[in-house]
Amino acid sequence: MAGDLIRVTRIAVFGRHGVLAEETVLGQRFYISLEAQLDLGAAGRSDDVAGTVSYADLTAVAVAIATEHRFNLIEALAEAIAAEILARFTLIDAVTVRVDKPSAPVPAILDSVSIEIMRRRGAGR
After folding, report:
1. Of the four listed, 5, 17, 35, 115, which is most buried by Cβ atoms within 10 Å?
2. What is the rounded average pLDDT for all residues in the chain?
3. How far is 9 from 3, CA to CA, in rounded Å?
């Protein structure tokens, strides 16, 4: 596998994800970051978009899933995004999805909570 990456960092979305009823009603901002592993050599040598994956398309997948669906857990949100990216973009060997939840209902002063998952094509997870 190539060591090449496409990164899309801190896509801001408004969603109603969470276990608590208030999170469903009020909603909140989430930030989604993506890191796609794929071989970018052909695209770099040819200067042809056919050899890569559009970061706009990656962003659109994350935004659609985060805004059109509701999840109790941000782990499930990340899993859905990773699965759709691997299903849709066959050039991608692996994808890392990070979801930050800045307004998590935690009885502490904190910047945010986050989860990060990495899924590989054909890994069975």
Report:
1. 17
2. 92
3. 18
